[in-house]
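Page 42, continued from yesterday. The earlier attempt failed because a stray header line got pasted into the input along with the sequence. Redoing it now with the clean sequence only.
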Amino acid sequence: METPQAPPHVMQSMRRRDLLKAGLAAGGALSAWLLPRPQGLWAAEAGQPKRGGILRVRGYDPVHFDHHLTTNFKTNTTLSFVHSRLVRHKVGAEVQPGTFLVEPDLAERWEELDDTTYVFHMRQGVKWQNKPPVNGRELVAQDVKFTFDRFLTEKGNQDRELLESVDRVEVVDRYTVKFLLKEPYVWLVNTLAYSRSMWIIAPEAVDTFGDLKKPEATIGTGPFVLERYEPNVKTVFKRNPDYFRREQPYVDGVEWLVAEDPSSGLAIYRTGQLDCDNWHWWGVRQQDMESVQKSHPQLKYQDMLGINTLNIFMRADQAPFNDVRVRRAISLAIDRQGLIEAVYLRGAPSPAVAPGLVEWALPIDQLGAGAQYYQHNPQEARRLLADAGFPKGLKTLLYTTGGYGPDFLDAGQLIQRYLKDVGLEAELKIQEYGAYFATTLQGKFEGMGMVPGAPAWEPDFVLDGYRADSPRNSGYVNDPKLTAMVKAQRQTKDLEARKRIIHDIQRLVAEQQYRVNLISVMNTGSWQPYVKNYAPNLTFDYGSRAAALWLER
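This time it went through. Structure tokens are written below.
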């Protein structure tokens, strides 16, 4: 098997190590705006900003509007238009897709006083959107404390473990907040930039509505105001005239259109009724790439190798999956390159850390003894199953969902066939997306589950799922050595030392196959040539990207 190569735009981009050494991320205390901007692919052609117009793009119908009560991407992407965070991932035409540079958002700067104390200095004069019950008052440090107190205490918050190292948040003064940690956590600032669950909220909204599930409760400090929500049709946003980035947004509004059918969505993009393409990440499905590029060569295209990994997880605490031979047999049964070519067309075989995270991911040929299990070897898979006591094969369940689109279901059916070829009969259990999210992804299942994996903007996000005491450990992995290694990288400030630990973790999980990591797919962003100052990226923060672009129709 060939070692997966990062796409050219990743290899040519600013190396993440250089950014980290500059103090931007992973425990650094400097602010991104202090550094020179990286040269992007379209920055030179952006020209002068132009105000006006309505951006029409593919959107999602949120499960509801309370980001502390769901980790669903459909909710978080929708909220990205309305809300802000303390810090964010940089956006704009100069940002190379696949890089996640942390910069100020509501906090204008931050400092690390010691290993367990971080202080954030807020922008002054930031206003909440002028809607009742908040009515445009100034954002203050107490709002930040309220947000994270709720984040840490809300029982329904499935992302609480992201900030489990936080002991408490204190108000220093009207514009300063302090995060006090129970133990060192070098990824704190990076985690606060996540475009899921970290949106800052107003206490009045919770006091008035009880929770934030209703669209009326969606009141933020972000670039757009939620004007109208039509379930299963669209959400309409208008420009926030009081946005603290005074010149933004340049467009007057956004129509966030629900268009789940890829064929109809592509058709309206081709006719110019959408400003960016209809597939996920405002991109083109790989199956449609050749015809679209042939018929519409004037459109903009940008490849982005996935930062998530399609994988099979299983009850590693129960027979037969508590036997490493069975787990290795499952991995050997899957033809990863065949899966790419049959379903997704482009992508790369992927270990635990997706190859799109080029600074942290190990190539498969550097995984040591575990590299062999990424080969397609049905004969060896059958031998391992026989050695484990299953010479005639075994039967199990494989849970999946149609909520990720038709390609994901196609992948599930092909994986089912690969497993059957080695004697492992997996009955495919297709769940409604909400039920799948509430049960299988939370570890409430028997047998095996299949998931595309959440985007991992840092390696810690995915590796923490192997920690025995992590709520994200849906496969019930219990490996004391692995748990100790995951905890160690979270507290190691020296970047090279941390990288060595993360590489060793990848080698260990490749050998043990607690999760059978399969592939990362290629995504291709596409947009109309009149959309300026825009570069796609694999975050849920569509709102900030929409605020930074302008239309020259």
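Notes: The CA atoms of residues 117 and 451 lie 36 Å apart.
Reminder to self: strip header lines before submitting.
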